[in-house]
Prior knowledge:
Blueprint: H1 3-31, H2 35-52, H3 58-75, E1 94-95, E2 98-99, H4 101-115, H5 134-148, E3 156-161, H6 167-180, E4 185-189, H7 190-202, H8 206-218, E5 221-227, H9 237-250, E6 255-259, H10 263-269, H11 272-278, E7 284-289, H12 294-297
Parallel strand pairs: 3-6, 3-7, 4-5, 5-6
Antiparallel strand pairs: 1-2
Helix pairs in contact: 1-4, 2-3, 5-6, 7-8, 8-9, 9-11, 10-11
This protein binds zinc ion.
Zinc ion binds near residues 86, 100 and 101.
Amino acid sequence: MRKNVLDNALKIIDENRFNAESEAKNNKLKALENEDFKKLYNQYVDLIIKNAQGENNEKNIENLKIKLENVQKKLNLGSIEPNYSCKLCNDTGFVNGKYCKCLTKEINNILVAESGFGHLEDFAKTNFKLNSNPEYMKKLYKLMKDWCHSNFEKNLIYIAGQTGVGKTHLLKCMAKELIDLNKVVFLTTSFAMNQDFLKSYSCKDLDEKDYILQKYLNAEILFIDDLGTELRQPGITVNYLYLIINERKMNKRPTIISSNLTLADINDYYDERVFSRITDLSSSICVYIEGDDLRLKK
Length: 298
Ligand SMILES: [Zn+2]
């Protein structure tokens, strides 16, 4: 995870926690202005301290807590306990040292906004009426949805098809499905990725050179839209593309690629190494979306 993305996501979570705790604190201060509440609250704190010192007061504490809540309800001031947005992690972002769902969600929000893909799509809301072969498309969508729920033994998905047949739509459905499964996805276009290849290539600073590529190498799940539409640079684009695909395959990190290029085209357009990594069917799934340009039909 890139540090600035993680930092920004954590900032949002921290703010949620701060707000929940501030509100609870304010409610408590107001409630303490009431004498009945204050008396009970002091007893309650007293018991908790004694409990911590070894006295077994659990039951009394529970009873007092209920009494406190009743007075509190009458005062109509809201809870004196923080009402965290995420009950799984109490707005800390972590559960057992791992990213909580709420943190993954914020990270994905940032990554999706950054990607320029706009809003994502939903498998459940997709209709195939405009497709020339709706039955085939239904099967294909189901295959891709099932893959999202798999253990990613097949770690490269190649979706080929002419312009406008709905490749990006399928990508967006998959991204949403994976986000809902608490995965971190990184969406990019081949064009944008290639710009970074060129940047990395011409960069003199070795650390910076690597850093530019990290988001492609380390992304938990990488989506590359429209492979083949980048401004190819001889000796750069192919080598970097191979590096990304090969490294990700070796580290078993899932990559989803959409392209106008058929598999046969890839061999000519890039080279044999890229072709053989993509078409290695022991760890790849290659599908083809047929049909006319849906944008024209709409
Ligand atoms: Zn959480």
